[in-house]
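Subject: sequence -> structure tokens, single chain

Hey, anyone have a minute? Need the predicted structure for the following. Not urgent.
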Amino acid sequence: MKNYFVGIDISKDTLDVCVMSENDEKEIFFKVENSVEGVEKMISTNVRKDSQLRYCFENTGNYGLLLAKILENHNLPYYQIPALEIKLSQGIQRGKNDKVDSWRIARYAKVHCHELTLHALPEKEILMIPSDLQKPFDKDKNAV
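Reply:
Had a minute. Here:
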């Protein structure tokens, strides 16, 4: 079984995806919408049937929540990494765009795959925090 590392750069509207093989023989880049349909399209774009895909993306808060939920629903392994951790591992870099970022995330997953632990979403009850509990924090944000 061949391993592929899928680096995903998440933005509000789109997901930039880089699929990298474990021996660097091929890289595939594509972009999908950050929606249920887009994530399902990304998952269905399987490289080979006898391969294992490992998804990796930066922890972007709410923008990555939909992606994480759908990957868990499909029982697919994924790593959610702090952006600073990926940035510090790269050293000084020039140039930045979404395609390059997805490549850097896939490369990070490939190089550090033995050190990474699979991510899992918190329990559903924690994800559904009532908005009434958020209001006191919103008031404190404006206080000086």
